[in-house]
Write a structure and sequence with these properties.
Oligomer: single chain
Number of strands: 10
Helix content: 40-55%
Radius of gyration: 20 Å
Largest sheet: 8 strands, mixed
Number of helices: 16
Shape: globular
Length: about 350
């Protein structure tokens, strides 16, 4: 096999990660369904819909033919929206070989099945879920494409994360490994919900006190459901957890924060989605997390209220009042049991 990496698909994050690989002097072929987008990347070296005003590496090549993108690739990086992950993985199956390193950098759930992205990919490819590598962490495409210092984490339960680390690591893109694939994947998906809430809080004009509380209690919810689903609680204190939560919930680069801010300003969900023009993963993830928490019997009050705002037209101020008016608690009583036991003993 050559030092070739296929990237599926050419959104903002896929293009930014492809640029990291191109900087590392790898052969990078980006697959897209759009013929015009492929032409723009190949001839003008831009992807203006997703990363306006940025010149892309001339090492990047785009194609609408998946067989062309994947043929002889050492690794395949999948950055499809969560709603398209199964379809893209199904298409990849025709060209996939067991020697290929499969990496995904999508933060979300399959809404219908409530499955993590690595589960969806493994089902379609017929491979071991533990052989898939998850890439996550605090990283805006708009900054990575400009080579701003960025640190991420790659996770796999099989040990393949080290191979992904070698592909991406360079002077501006630092990569750590982690064996807690479930925790890294859950943290990356669930923090988008809290980022929506943080944007909503800012849109309502509630200030820094409210946002700090939201992030802290939001991380508690993420940890609680994560541990219940088999994650290592320490993962949520790392790059995939608190790191990604902070960057997504406080930056105007964040689609989730922007969508939440518009909702807080009184815009309807349909109006927000139309104005964004791009996928806001936190909206789908809120629906999935609401269903997962109900299925597992895990309390997630912030997720619960955001679900009512997004899908049942609850006024954001009423949702905040419901959160603030909950029965009194001790801070530690809602801590995941594993963390409580370690701390208490």
């Amino acid at each position: 096999m050559s030092d070739k990496v296929a990237v599926l698909v050419a959104g903002s994050w896929g293009t930014a990660l492809a640029s990291v690989l191109a900087y590392n002097k790898l052969e990078v072929v980006v697959w897209t369904r759009g013929a015009e987008q492929a032409r723009e990347i190949n001839e003008e070296h831009t992807n203006n819909r997703y990363l306006p005003g940025v010149e892309l590496s001339h090492r990047l090549r785009a194609t609408t033919d998946m067989s062309d993108a994947v043929a002889n690739a050492t690794a395949v990086l999948i950055v499809a929206p969560s709603s398209a992950m199964r379809e893209v993985s199904k298409q990849l199956k025709t060209y996939w070989t067991e020697e290929m390193l499969i990496i995904h950098a999508t933060k979300g759930f399959e809404t219908e099945s409530l499955k993590r992205m690595s589960t969806v990919i493994s089902e379609e490819l017929g491979c071991n879920e533990g052989d898939i590598v998850v890439l996550s962490g605090p990283s805006h495409a708009e900054e990575v494409i400009r080579k701003c210092p960025t640190t991420v984490v790659v996770a796999s339960s099989s040990g393949r994360a080290a191979a992904a680390q070698d592909l991406f690591m360079n002077a501006y893109f630092r990569v750590y490994t982690n064996r807690d694939m479930i925790g890294v994947e859950l943290a990356g998906a669930l923090k988008n919900i809290i980022a929506l809430g943080a944007g909503m809080s800012d849109g309502l004009g509630f200030g820094d006190n409210a946002k700090a509380a939201l992030l802290t209690r939001g991380l508690a919810e993420i940890s609680r459901i994560g541990v219940e689903m088999g994650a290592n609680p320490l993962t949520f204190a790392g790059l995939a957890g608190i790191g990604d939560l902070v960057v997504t919930a406080t930056s105007r680069h964040s689609r989730n924060w922007r969508a939440g801010s518009l909702l807080g300003q009184g815009k309807g969900l349909d109006e927000v989605l139309e104005s964004m023009g791009m996928v806001v993963e936190g909206i789908r993830t809120t629906k999935a997390a609401y269903a997962i928490s109900d299925k597992l019997g895990v309390q997630m009050p912030i997720v619960n209220q955001l679900y009512h705002v997004l899908f049942e037209d609850r006024d954001p101020r009423v949702a905040v009042e419901a959160l603030m008016g909950r029965d009194p608690k001790t801070e530690m009583e809602m801590m995941p049991q594993e963390i409580w036991e370690q701390w208490h003993t």
